[in-house]
Amino acid sequence: MNELGKWERFQAFLRDEIRSLTTVNESDRKWHLPFTAALATGLPLLIGAYFDHLNYGVVSSLGGLVFLYMPPTPLYHRMVALMACAFGMTACYALGLMSHLLEPTMMLVLIFISILVTMICRFYGVGPPGSLFFIMAASIGAYSPVELMQLPLLVGLFIMGSLLACMIGFIYSLCILRIQKPLNVPTLIPPSFDFVVYESVVIGVFVGISLAAAQVLNLQKAYWVPVSCLAVIQGATLRAVWSKQLHRILGTVIGLLVSFGLLLFPLDQWSICLAMMILTFIVESAIVRHYAFAAIFITPLTILLGEAATLGQSSASALIQARFLDTVLGCLVGLMGGVCLHSPRFRLVVGGLLRRLMPNHWTLN
Q: Helix (H, G, I), strand (E, B), or coil: what is residue 199?
């Protein structure tokens, strides 16, 4: 009877997983938002290709990702939010670049950025993608081979990309607000200690652990490890964490096959730009409907974003293998972090310790 009960529970578990993988969510996101997002990240690439400096265009394109933080609120609010996120992403990228100059500090810098950015995003109610692209900018910066005198140039390129995204966001808002009523500015929920402090610290520490694990395993350009970890660990429940890591690994496996096929073509600067714009459009159209399907196209997009300037200098199979290991490692550490994050006993012990370390004048409940 006991064995029969275990088998029935296993069958129910499989049914839930299949249902999770096959469920397509409804969304009211129109085509023009993904199209404009592709334009915000693609224009810097096109400009870089035109001047035969695609590597510069890639840095500016990374700054263009800030467009995805534009909320559907009135014009005054969305532009303030967009410019604040642009400043934050620039700061994260600059800190990531500086940490590359002194590799032993890389993990500590990423932990600091992850904790601080997650706290700020939660305190001010920043919606999806939350702290993800801030950490992504810092991670890519940390693995960028840069000399000290190149820092101002790269940070300047990142700022130009984010400013272009803000300008595109302003023009887009002027057009869309004529035909679409904005949502009211959401009222900030009084922040709780667990949500803002405890969970941010745990998330930041496990993001740092994922990077440390990548360094111990001597993974090259492992910027995708902490990003994968963060994407998984932020699930609202342990079930959500499990589902997200399953979606991400499955989508990544299929996406790596797509990437391998894409890399077999003789890609030049213009075709890389076009491919990245098309992939961005697909991802932003699909991400709110089905995460695993979106992850299929996130994988080649991130490979091109991180490796566009050096494609052809290493074998495609080695690149695909490296990204697969990065994703699996990041998801596993993220799952471990999710187990700790949602464990009542872990929350009681670690949360109590953090409360004792917290200054008395902080008033979070």
A: helix
Rg (CA), the chain: 21
Amino acid letter at 76? Y
Low-confidence ranges of the chain (pLDDT < 70): 1-8, 10-11, 13, 17, 20-22, 28, 235-240, 242, 307-316, 359-365
SS3 97: helix
Q: Are 200 and 117 in contact (CB under 8 A)?
A: no
Q: Which pair of tokens denotes residue 78?
A: 């969305």
Residue keyed to tokens 């993220």: 334
* Buried-state track 259-293, b at ≥16 Cβ within 10 A, e below 16: beebbeeebebeebbebbbebbbbbbbbbbebbbb
**Closest listed residue to residue 134, CA positions, set 157, 153, 109, 154:** 109
Query: What are the C-alpha distances in Å from 297 to residues 10, 62, 70, 248, 279?
Result: 31, 17, 22, 11, 6
- 110/98 Cα distance (integer angstroms): 11
Give the CA angle between residues 122, 100, 103 to the nearest 5°: 100
Prior bond of 129 cis (ω within 30°): yes
DSSP 26: -
Asked whether the beta carbons of 61 and 67 are under 8 A apart, the reply is no
Name the token pair of 230: 């963060």
Q: Cα(336)–Cα(232) distance, rounded to whole angstroms?
A: 10
Tokens (6 digits) for 17: 């997983």
Segments in the chain forming alpha helices (H): 2-22, 32-50, 54-64, 75-101, 106-123, 132-142, 151-176, 193, 199-216, 224-233, 238-263, 269-286, 291-307, 316-341, 344-357
Is residue 272 within 8 Å of residue 308, measured between CB atoms? yes
- Enter the pTM of the model: 0.87
How distant is the alpha carbon of residue 4 from its chain centre? 42
In this structure, what DSSP letter does residue 187 have? P
Residue bearing tokens 């009960």: 5
pLDDT digits (tens, 9 = 90+) for 307-317: 665 555 556 67
SS3 362: coil
